[in-house]
Write a structure and sequence with these properties.
about 550 residues; alpha+beta; Rossmann fold; Thrombin, subunit H; 9-stranded antiparallel sheet
């Protein structure tokens, strides 16, 4: 039974009122009523048509979900609520405010189909699992070189199920069978590719007679043999690597049988004297004497190891005897700075609408962000037909694919999603390098944006060009200027320069020349005396960020 009371739509369940948990907000009264009627069969709904009413309703700690058409002022209201509120925006477009909300760390689910609203709200207010199964219509599944195509029944972040129709063979789909090169399509559009899954169970379906349901769990693909693997056997070195990883990007731990998602662990203590290390993780699936696989990244290399669990609480493991270093990544990961956060807009055939996320880390090969494990679908192998990275006024468009998911301890509703770039052209790589540089060091500018006159004047002002040197170089000044203009006229693989700015004035400058295929020679390092320490440190660090991205291999 529906009733309205002071702007509230309520539902009685078994003769009593249920706990209020969903708030719908819309200035259009007719649309507001449609939303309330659509949601009321599954939950109690409260409504607000003005920001003043919204503020009052958000004060209720039982308000768990806000459904709205985004408008100015909403972010401040949600942040001031004093308790977590999960937000759903319904609409065909993405307002700028949602981009700002993502940059502020507020996740907003975006729907452009009204019929998906009840199911999405239900997942948010009645969570059953961190791997919710989504029933998606119109999707087909194929595997490897097989010509068979199956109807997809359910898809989650950890696995999938599909239907085997009468007449289709079941012999190769028995429990334990590994399905490589999985592809999921919506019509001709590819929504997932290059994934691997293992068959867990088979069930007989009632309709149509003779059909089966096959359930699978995703598993990590085997590592390619193309990467160069170097074993690290020194115990002190292994301990130092683990300590550095726990203090920076963290370590991924997973079970040896690939059951479930890996757990992302950051922070901990390495006790080299007893050969053990402890990680700050309470919520994890490991038991004492389990053998786990570990993985972390440092300085552009990927490290892998196996370790034994010594104790479950706190999670303590033995320092591995060997850590394998895989020198496969072309550039290290970095975390965008808070003053200029980076957000990404994602579009995929598997999404009901665009998704906008705050980028947690980024490199020349990919990036990661956090997702709502109970409501959002980002399975391994998911393909994005459009990715747009934004930082300030800079934008980069490309395509990509989900490579991995990881649990975050003490945050059971959140998963870390890693995405790999696909088919980045040279221009996009260069702009990506500049975007990363600007994100890490907001005061740095590409040297191409600085004129020869400004650079030369700075060299003179900092005494980099002292009188005797200027006297010797004066006859060559026209050729020097011509070389400078040629080197900075367009992006190239031989020369790179950066300027450190304060109040639109150059206070530091450095340039690099590519002397050999993988060797850059830094030169022209100059800075004003006031900013000497800071400018020197930042300028020397920058070519290490830019060079690997601009020069593949």
């Amino acid at each position: 039974m529906l009733g309205t009371n002071h702007g509230t739509v309520e539902r009685e369940v078994d003769g009593r009122q249920s706990v209020p948990n969903v708030l719908v907000f819309n200035s259009d009264e007719a649309e507001l009523l449609r939303w309330a009627e659509l949601l009321s069969p599954g939950c109690r709904v409260r409504s607000a048509s003005t920001l003043e009413t919204l503020e009052r309703e958000l004060d209720d700690p039982q308000t768990m979900v806000l459904v709205c058409r985004w408008q100015d002022g909403l972010l401040e209201q949600v942040q001031a609520a004093g308790h977590p509120v999960r937000v759903i925006h319904y609409g065909a477009t993405i307002p700028d405010g949602i981009i700002e909300a993502a940059a502020a760390g507020c996740q907003v689910l975006i729907l452009d189909r009204l019929e998906e609203l009840p199911a999405t709200v239900s997942r948010l207010i009645s969570p059953r699992s961190t791997s919710w199964r989504h029933r998606l219509e119109g999707l087909t599944l194929s595997s490897g070189l097989s010509t068979e195509s199956y109807r997809l029944l359910e898809l989650s972040n950890e696995g999938l199920s599909f239907r085997v129709a009468p007449g289709q063979g079941i012999e190769d789909l028995l429990p334990g069978a590994v399905l490589d090169e999985l592809v999921i399509r919506r019509g001709v559009e590819c929504g997932l590719a290059r994934s691997t899954a293992i068959v867990r169970h088979i069930g007989l379906l009632d309709s149509p007679p003779g059909s089966y349901s096959v359930g699978c769990a995703f598993r990590r693909p085997k590592r390619g043999d193309a990467d160069s693997v170097v074993p690290v056997r020194d115990r002190a070195w292994c301990a130092a690597l683990l300590r550095t990883a726990l203090g920076s990007s963290g370590i991924l731990l997973e079970t040896i049988d690939d059951s479930g998602l890996p757990t992302h662990c950051s922070g901990g203590v390495v006790a080299g004297n007893v050969g053990e290390f402890t990680v700050n993780s309470v919520d994890h699936p490991f038991a004492e004497l389990d053998v786990v696989r570990g993985r972390f990244e440092l300085g552009g290399s990927v490290y892998r190891f196996h370790a034994t669990v010594v104790a479950r609480a706190p999670l303590t493991l033995r320092i591995p005897r060997v850590i394998e270093e895989t020198q496969g990544r072309t550039s290290p990961r970095c975390q965008p700075c808070a003053p200029e956060p980076m957000v990404v807009e994602l579009i995929s055939p598997l999404l009901f609408g665009p998704a906008v996320k705050l980028v947690r880390d980024i490199s020349g090969s990919g990036f990661s962000f956090e997702i709502d494990a109970e409501a959002e679908l980002f399975p391994p192998g998911m393909r994005f037909t459009r990715i747009e990275l934004r930082s300030g006024d800079q934008k980069i468009g490309c395509r990509g694919q989900v490579r991995n998911l990881a649990r975050i301890p003490e945050r059971p509703r959140v998963l870390r999603c890693g995405v790999e770039f696909e088919a980045l052209d040279e221009s996009a790589r260069v702009r990506l390098a500049e975007l990363i540089m600007r994100s890490r060091f907001p005061a740095l500018r590409d040297g191409r944006d600085v004129s020869f006159e400004d650079v030369w004047s700075f060299f003179v002002r900092t005494n980099f060009m002292y009188p005797d040197k200027m006297l010797k170089l004066r006859p060559l000044l026209p050729q020097i200027r011509q070389t400078f203009d040629s080197a900075t006229a367009r992006t190239n693989r031989l020369f790179k320069s950066v300027a450190f700015m304060r109040d639109q004035e150059i206070v530091g400058y450095a340039s690099g020349l590519r002397a050999y295929r993988n060797t850059w020679m830094n030169q022209h390092l100059a800075c004003s005396s006031r900013w000497r320490s800071c400018a020197t440190r930042r300028s020397w660090g920058t070519p290490q960020v830019c060079a690997p991205i601009e020069t593949p291999g």
